[in-house]
Write a structure and sequence with these properties.
This protein is of the alpha+beta class. 24% of the residues lie in helices and 41% in strands. It has one helix and four strands; from the N terminus they run ββββα. A hairpin with a 2-residue loop joins strand 2 and strand 3.
């Protein structure tokens, strides 16, 4: 399995799973989305926020929307 850089186009394959990650970076909180495909993993920065709370809310909404695109939540 390979980890793919941000500037890669989306895979033609169907995604197996999706996660969002909140990381602190230079005094702000960033939301990244991580999508697992059969041929690799794509990690993409979505947005940065001034507070962790806003980033956590955004991450949750982004993950839920992405899960709808890959046939619903994987564990329920």
């Amino acid at each position: 399995m390979t980890i793919v850089a941000d500037d890669r186009e989306t895979s033609a394959d169907e995604a197996f799973s999706v996660e969002t990650v909140v990381v602190e970076e230079r005094g702000q909180w960033a939301v990244d989305i991580v999508v697992v495909f059969a041929d690799g993993i794509v990690r993409k920065r979505i947005e940065t926020y001034h507070t962790r709370n806003l980033a956590e809310i955004a991450a949750k909404l982004i993950r839920r929307a992405a899960e709808r695109d890959i046939k619903g939540p994987l564990n329920g």
